[in-house]
Amino acid sequence: MEAQSGALSYHDGLDAFRQDPAAAGWLRRPRLAAAAAEAVLLADAAVAAGKRVLPPPGDVFNALRLTPLDKVRVVILGQDPYPTPGHAHGLAFSVKAGVKPLPASLRNIFKELAADLGVEPPKSGELTFWADQGVLLLNTALTVEAGKAAAHMGWPWRDLTREAVNAVSQERRHVVFCLWGLKAQAFAPLINSSSHLIIASEHPSPLSAYRGFFGSKPFSRANAWLAAHDEPQIRFADQSRLE
User: For residue 87, which of 78, 100, 105 has the smallest C-alpha distance?
Assistant: First the structure.
């Protein structure tokens, strides 16, 4: 159910996130907390003006809630949520279980995953099982207007993402940052490359995947880095063991 039904406001969604113990590390960053508060005000104002905002309020902060700061081992930055109702649920590139066909970018991610690791790709496009293993799937904007991609890219969400990247770079060790496309790569100066691995490539969009995303082997490179630093590897393909 979307916020437009009146069940929850985006401010309510932020309040629920604040009360979640998993949010504590993130909310220690004042700029992140302030950016979130400013952005949900804009989201509620948009709904009041008759616009449909996605994802639902209870899902907006899923990336930060499902992957607490002290558990982050891999960061994958997206742009903004899918603008198709019923698809986005707060994790970059992920879709809700049962969504078919998968968005083109996610199909390309799974194609590279299969080629890179020599495995069958996940059966579902829901990537919660990545988040549960420490993969922060964070968009640059956490909301979007239905049917209007990039409509909220100018909102304070970008400040939230910048501060989240800062927090991971400063407070975590040996994290892998997957920066797919120029918009994600703009965050590279915030990352301490002497402590973390940056894997930069083209975006998995059909418009650019063949220009350098395919063949970039981000999944095996990420796991090699983690293994070299005595961290458990990410099971990128095997959903069954985590159900």
Answer: 100
The tokens 């104002």 sit on which residue?
45
Query: Distance between CA 93 and CA 233 in Å, rounded?
Result: 20
Known catalytic membership, residue 238: no
Query: What's the pLDDT tens digit per position in 88-107?
Result: 999 999 999 999 999 999 99
Strand partners, 135: 74
Q: Which amino acid is at 75?
A: V
3-state secondary structure 131-182: HCCCEEEEECCCCEECCECCCCCCCCHHHHHHHHHHHHHHHCCCCEEEEECH
Under the banding of pLDDT at 50, 70 and 90, the label for residue 242 is very low
Q: Is the pTM of this model over 0.85?
A: yes
Which one of the listed residues 44, 59, 80, 116 is annotated catalytic?
80
What would the DSSP string read from start to end of the chain?
--GGGTS--HHHHHHHHHTSGGGHHHHTSHHHHHHHHHHHHHHHHHHHTT--EES-GGGTTHHHHHS-GGG--EEEEESS--SSTTT--SSTT---TT-SSPPHHHHHHHHHHHHHHTSPPPSSS--HHHHTTTEEEEESSS-EETTBTTTTTTSTHHHHHHHHHHHHHHH-SS-EEEEESHHHHTTGGGS-TTTSEEEEE--SSTTTGGGTTTT--HHHHHHHHHHHTT-PPP-SS--GGG-
In this predicted structure, the answer to whether residue 3 has a pLDDT above a threshold of 90 is: no
Q: How far apart are CA 102 and CA 87, in angstroms?
A: 9
